[in-house]
Amino acid sequence: MERGELDQRLQEERQARERLYGNRGLDPGPVDVVAAEDPGAEALAVAGESAHVRAGRLARSTALFSLATSFSRIAGLVREVFAAAYFGVSGAMSAFTIAFQVPNLVRSLFADAAIQAAFVPVFTEQLEKGNKREAFRLASTLIFLVTLVLTALTALFILIAPVLMPLFVGSKVPQGLTVTLSQVLFPILVMLGTTGMVVGILNSYDRFGAFAISPFFWNVAIIAVLVALAPLFHGDNRIYAYAIGVLVGTAIQLAIPTWDLRHTPFRLLRVFDWRSLEVRRVLLLMLPVTLSLGLINFNLLINSIFGSLVSEHAPAEIDKAFRIYMLPQGIFSVAVTTVVFPTLARLAARREYDDLRATMANGMRQIVLLLVPAAAAILVLSVPMIRLVYQRGEFTPGDTQVVATALFWFAFSLPFNGLFLLLTRTFFSLQRPWVPTAISGVNLAITAIAALALYRPFGVGGIVAATVIATAASVLAQTIVLRRQLGRLELGRLIWTTLRVGAAAAALAGASYGVWNVLDTALGRGLGGQVISLTAGLAAGALVYAAAIILLRIPEAEQIWRLLRREGADASG
Questions:
Q1: What is the 3-state secondary structure (H, E, C) of 439-491?
Q2: Each residue's pLDDT tens digit, 51-84
Q3: What does each C-alpha distance from 221 to 190, 233, 337, 469 come to in angstroms?
Q4: What is the largest CA-CA distance in the chain?
Q5: Which of 178, 274, 355, 407 is the most exposed place for a label (fewest CB within 10 A)?
Q6: Mean pLDDT of all residues in the chain?
Q7: No. of H helices and E strands in the chain?
Q8: Could you tell me how far CA 560 lies from the centroid of its own chain?
Q9: Res. 32: pLDDT tops 70
Q10: In terms of DSSP H, where are the helices of 311-396?
């Protein structure tokens, strides 16, 4: 590169960082973590930065986000262990499941992820243009607007809950308890809406830590409140202690990222310019985003509705399996998607579609690399996983078999759902949210039709299988549409990576089940024996998988390996 070109690149980098971080000394600077030796990693580019720095920054952010999310998901499992011991899969637990899912569905429509997906591209675009003051006015107005609207919605839903909630509850689940639990839980809407705005601002500045770790404290708070308050209630009413814990935990989940705003240039302004052009842009983007994410979350409610037709236990049984399923989903695919999304938004704002396409393709391969082996482990060890996590107190061996069946079928959707999340965010970054909205509508229709056809002959397993079918179809539709817009998506490389990862995952499954089976026979079903046999089985499978993907020379695995080596060198240094 000529000297003049180098000077120009350096000047562009300084200007880009000044626009993004301001002059407050808050620029974290380049993080030299891993060289981007393959084309996918090189495409993680952000203008003005070297490919070496760009890939390292995203890889490091993803690794740290995954680590923080791991702690949160483990805490979530501990919370589920306590809940299973207290309530099992009783009618009261099914009532709580539906009572929580309805406000959670409304949250997906008007708060949290819907706000982030519409807000981040517009906010980032303003920062990229150097319009920092306008970006702050936009964010401040939306914070006040979201809080006001969601407070009104919360009051409305609390009033109409006696009429609304029975629509979602089959005859085998306690309806009165479901209504009152939903009234207790609806206030989480306001807190989650504000959290969505705050986290969107943090993510625009590439700050992911507070968002990743706050669910850990959410889970800890729920456990503490449950243990403290459950003795004050009797019978099915003990479930109210769990609902109160969710309220307390959600307040803490809002406080943590709000505190982290101090580390960004953002300052809340006393403005309410709801008629501004940028506010209207966000609201217009929110309409299809809201429908898209809302339809996705409606699938869970469909599972519970059909489950309530199977038995009073089925909604809680499906939900228990879903909690285990979300452990690898949250650690890996949500981490990749959350970290990559602001970069996709910046690349889309600059119309750098080649880099955007390659960044997305690299993310797809990373998701396959991480979630296919997780699915393989769940397929062969679903029963011992459920037995170890849940089977105590009110949770019986019969419950274990049904929940393990649901988890077995959930495993098939792991890679598909991870890809679905990433592709949906790609459409959002391109500010084309109506496409995933339409696809989500088809997804919902397929889920409902398949569940209707399968729930009678196959019970809980059929209901979950319907979700798998719909998710796989949605990923196929998203891929077709994106290929038409962006051109080649490196699908040949994705298929070749998937085939090699599948072979390595098959080896993982064999090793995991073999080691677990031998130790389970030798050590028995006591708590200590279960911990040792399951842990050893998963560890053996992980070692076999790691060796296999290294021998197969999968480039995405080499990216992670270089990252781990560099992190180890930094720690020892």
A1: HHHHHHHHHHHHHHHHHHHHHHHHHHHHHHHHHHHHHHHHHHHHHHHHCCCCH
A2: 444 455 555 666 666 676 677 778 888 888 888 8
A3: 19, 18, 27, 36
A4: 77
A5: 274
A6: 80
A7: 19, 0
A8: 20
A9: no
A10: 314-328, 334-349, 353-390
Q: Which residue has the tokens 């196929």?
A: 476
Residues constituting the chain = 573
* Residue 419 and residue 413 in contact, taking contact as beta carbons nearer than 8 Å: no
**Alpha-carbon gap, residue 423 to 444, rounded angstroms:** 17
Dihedral pair phi/psi, residue 146, rounded to 5°: -60, -45
Range from 55-64, 133-142, 449-458 carrying the lowest mean pLDDT = 55-64
pLDDT tens for each residue of 383-398:
999 999 888 877 888 8
> Read out DSSP for 194-260?
HHHHHHHHHHHTT--HHHHHHHHHHHHHHHHHHHHHGGGS-GGGGHHHHHHHHHHHHHHHHHHHHHH
292 contacts: CB under 8 Å, gap ≥ 6: 424, 433, 436, 437, 439, 440
CA distances (Å), origin 454, targets 312, 464, 469, 474: 18, 9, 12, 19
* Stronger pLDDT, 102 or 17, i.e. the higher one: 102
Tell which residue, 393, 107, 388, has the closest CA to residue 238. 393
Most confident residue range from 62-66, 525-529, 553-557: 525-529
C-alpha closest to that of 71 among 269, 268, 209, 235 = 209
Which amino acid belongs to residue 106?
V
Torsion angle defined by CA atoms of residues 560, 563, 564 and 569, in that order, rounded to the nearest 10 degrees: 160
Handedness of CA 93, 94, 97, 98 (dihedral sign): negative
Q: Are 552 and 504 in contact (CB under 8 A)?
A: yes
**DSSP for residue 432:** -
CB atoms near residue 543 (< 10 Å): 12
Element of type H or E holding 261: none
pLDDT tens string 367-377:
899 899 999 99
pLDDT higher than threshold 60 for residue 444: yes
More confidently predicted of 50 and 259 = 259
| Assigned token pair, 328 | 């690898």
Task: Give residue-wise pLDDT tens across range 208-223.
Answer: 778 778 888 999 999 9
C-alpha distances out from residue 252 to 190, 213, 219, 293, 435, Å? 13, 11, 10, 24, 35
